[in-house]
């Protein structure tokens, strides 16, 4: 019979052993001369199993924290559990530091210092619980979260733009969960942000668009930023202003030269109508007295009959 302190007393016959049969039993021998008793401890051994409660199928790790992949398995003798990433070849064996003893297993089993989680640890792992009576296998999917990595910020077509042109800046960063983006921009009315804030477009660049453009990527694990210095080239405008000044100067020079030419050609040879020329500068020139020794110019006046 089973010890009443450990469970109900019941007779044993020939049947299949179950785990519930484990315990302390009292064997009693009796005849007319007396009674003899003996205590017997029965241990039931069985193959391993890995329940969901002790070994969830989905794991979420954070980059930079210690790896924890141990699974609690049941079995007698206590099984040892090893976990390795699926897809590792013989040439690239599983990371031995991920092979950990079962939390319920042999306390004397050697334990290794867990590595630090990296993005490369994401994937599917197979955990195997083994003892003398068999083994059990359970697959685990591991996702790794991390803060935004270095931000990449590209200016298209270039960070050196010409006045009046259109340019854009594209911002990118890896992170899990996916990061959100924010900008610090020179104040200008011709800026347009993309729908997901990953880009900004500037149309008709002006001097107001010069300056530092900073994109910041953020998620619940951190943030990272990148910057680009944009310059707006106005050399063509300066050249145009210079050309305009030269053009105005040329017009003044031409006007002065034209006046001098007209003055120098007054009172020269030609054909005149006396009646029309009497009140003109030419008539005054014709009637002007000349010094005796100044031969002057000889003018011929053609008289037009009435």
Task: Please characterize this protein's 3D structure.
The protein is mainly beta and 306 residues long. Among the domains are: 47-145, Immunoglobulins (Immunoglobulin-like), CATH 2.60.40.10; 157-235, Sandwich (Immunoglobulin-like), CATH 2.60.40.10. Helix content is 13%, strand content 34%. It has helices at 235-264, 274-277, 281-286; strands at residues 23-31, 34-42, 46-49, 58-62, 74-76, 80-85, 123-131, 134-145, 152-156, 160-162, 167-172, 180-184, 191-193, 199-202, 211-219, 222-233. The strands form five sheets. The chain has a four-stranded mixed β-sheet with strand order 4-8-7-6, with no helix packed on it. A four-stranded antiparallel β-sheet has the order 9-11-14-13, with no helix packed on it. The longest helix has 30 residues, at 235-264. The chain is rod-shaped. Mean pLDDT is 78; it is low at 4-11, 90-97, 101-106, 238-243 and 280-289. This is ICAM5 protein. One of its GO terms (molecular function) is integrin binding. The chain crosses the membrane at residues 236-262.
């Amino acid at each position: 019979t089973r010890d009443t302190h450990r469970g109900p007393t019941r007779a044993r016959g020939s049947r299949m052993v179950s785990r519930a049969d484990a315990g302390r039993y009292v064997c009693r021998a009796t005849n007319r001369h007396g009674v003899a008793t003996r205590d017997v401890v029965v241990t039931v051994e069985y193959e391993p199993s890995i329940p969901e409660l002790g070994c969830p199928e989905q794991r979420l790790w954070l980059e930079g924290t210690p790896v924890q992949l141990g699974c609690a398995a049941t079995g007698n003798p206590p099984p040892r559990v090893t976990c390795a990433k699926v897809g590792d070849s013989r040439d690239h064996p599983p990371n031995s530091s991920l092979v950990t003893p079962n939390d319920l297993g042999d306390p004397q089993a050697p334990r290794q210092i867990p590595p630090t989680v990296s993005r490369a640890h994401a994937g599917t792992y197979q955990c195997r619980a083994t003892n003398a009576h068999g083994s059990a296998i359970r697959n685990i999917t591991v996702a790794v979260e991390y803060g935004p990595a270095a931000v990449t910020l590209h200016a298209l077509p270039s960070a050196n733009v010409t006045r009046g042109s259109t340019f854009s800046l594209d911002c990118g960063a890896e992170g899990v969960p996916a990061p959100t983006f924010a900008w610090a921009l020179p104040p200008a009315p011709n800026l347009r942000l993309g729908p997901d804030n990953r880009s900004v477009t500037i149309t008709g660049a002006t001097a107001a668009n010069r300056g530092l453009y900073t994109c910041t990527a953020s998620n619940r694990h951190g943030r990272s930023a990148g910057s680009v210095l944009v310059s707006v080239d106005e050399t063509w405008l300066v050249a145009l202003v210079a050309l305009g000044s030269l053009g105005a100067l040329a017009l003044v020079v031409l006007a002065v030269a034209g006046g001098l030419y007209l003055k120098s050609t007054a009172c020269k040879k030609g054909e005149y109508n006396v009646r029309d020329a009497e009140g003109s500068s030419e008539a005054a020139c014709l009637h002007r007295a000349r010094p005796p020794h100044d031969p002057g110019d000889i003018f011929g006046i053609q008289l037009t009959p009435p």
